[in-house]
User: Fold IgGFc-binding protein from Lingula anatina.
Amino acid sequence: MYMDNVVENPSGFPLELYVTTSKPNVSVNVIAPGYPLVVSLTDSLTAGTVKQFNIPKELRQVETGLERKAILVEATDDVVVYGVNKELFSNDAFLAYPTDTLGMEYFTVSYAPPTTNCEFGIVGVVDGTSLEITFPSPSGTPVQVSYGGVNYGNGDKLTVPSFNRSHTLQIRSQGDLTGTFIKATNPVAVFSGNVRTAVGESESRDHLVEQIPPIRSWGTEFVTVPIPRRTVGDLFRIIASVNNTAVTISGMPEMTIDRGEFVQVNISSTMYASIRATRPILVMQIVYSQFDPDEPADPAMITVPPTDQFAQEYSFLTPVYSGGVTGGDYTHLFLLAIREEDRNGLWLDGQPLNSTHTVNWNRISGTNFVGTWVNVSGGAHTVYHPNATFMGLLYGTADRETYGFPVGMRLADIAVNYTTPAVTVTTVTTEAPSTVTACTAALVEISDFNMALAFAIAVGVNLLTACLLIIATYKWRQAVGENKFEETMEIPYRPDSNGTIGGVGGVTTQPDPDHIDRNWLMNADDFEGHEKGSYDINSRL
Assistant:
């Protein structure tokens, strides 16, 4: 999906799509399902080659609205895909994610206050999907969105009941859309950024866009490499997925943010920093506007991958300059970070990196990582390490025009079973039982077959034994009559791809050893309809 990118004098550039592979022979099809007669492209790739596909500019989304402007890339083997959304003096690029890595829960991020609107876009992958979009609570410029004849503001919920394959929804607002929560009933793709904006005190503007990783692939450890040849520093926006998330950045006081909230910090142009969090976060690096002709640049937004999502190999093709300045061109820079002991094993285009470039490594405070950047020429490149993972970001700068994006990353579900603050479940009676566990007592009032099965799996007994225990407990409670007791248990709170949390209702794939005796999953909706007062969830979800 290509979001709105508005300039005073449109150039008519096509939308650019790049595809590369490390596999020997791959066939690629590029289509627009909503416009099959407009886009239907086919080509073949060999390992290390990159193909550029041009998409008609009419498939760029405009304003707030629902359309069918999705671009579908299908290949016979694994490929890497990225898009470039270019206008005169306004450009940015994004890494596109495979459909099998998409999720159902996202938070968006933009820069604010924007010169021209903040925006985000959603792409449908499965027919019959419904969307629930919750705009952020007030934190800056108020959100004002008009969709379907209804006006929405901060904290309001917009529902799209029928969102099908190849549907594209774009939302624009002059207010800050960062922290908008998107929940879908099937996997969707989400893009976020700004139509065109200045960042900082300069008035120079550019388009911002990134495809947003699903919450389940967020991480807790990050390292940063400053944008080269600048002195104004870099802006970072950090968004939390869980309440009470503590964030620590090299040389700064600890900050605490709640779910959907963000912090915005400036990190010096000389600082190679580490960012750590107690729970999964999303980190965006935003390039400041050009303020000096000696430091050509413009805004761009770059997803910083968690260290757990680094890969071993990246292939990419550098974008082409829009031609805004006669004789001008991009300077292309490859930013990377790797563990210090692995730095000598890097290869660029078939040769050891340290044999073709003078590499100045910089230690990243509080970690065993080092970071650097190198110039790369225009064209196709491959950066590789035989046995270590590393971060790779591509950044290009010209007079009043810039792009930046991660050239690849893993999108493993590393946040699915992440343990966060416990949910407290309280069962109330007046006479404490001597032989019945809190686990069994919590199941008594809803003791059906499904609960028995969940209990059996949780405590490691067979189904018959679980049923007998529950029946015995139920009979015991009947004998007790109105006598009641109060007992509280802590259940680990774990976000996963279905939005469930630690408790009853399913089984975790990776049990927390500290809670092995009661390691279940509970959906908050499971409590609806049960006897009032039976369960008390003392945690904000």
